[in-house]
Amino acid sequence: MTSNNSELLGLKNLGMASVNILHAIGVNSYDDLNKMGAVEAYLRIKNRGIHVSKVMLYALQGALMDVHWNDLPPDLKNQLLDEVEQANNAASSSA
Fold it and tell me: Are 55 and 69 in contact (CB under 8 A)?
């Protein structure tokens, strides 16, 4: 296991499958994920054709905050979903 794997695997909510997905979008460390943000990382995952649910979005945000995804406040979950929807709308209107 590389140090990048162990760093990401040490974050809440992330298992080996999630870490592999993150590597596929260029996220190799906490800093990479933090710079990209949960919403952008989620969108990049979806844009690669990888099927993930909104739980992945919550898991990424929880990993950044060191909180189990299910313990994120409902208003934060709604905000994340709104940001995803806004990004999707912007992408489809520019296409």
Answer: yes
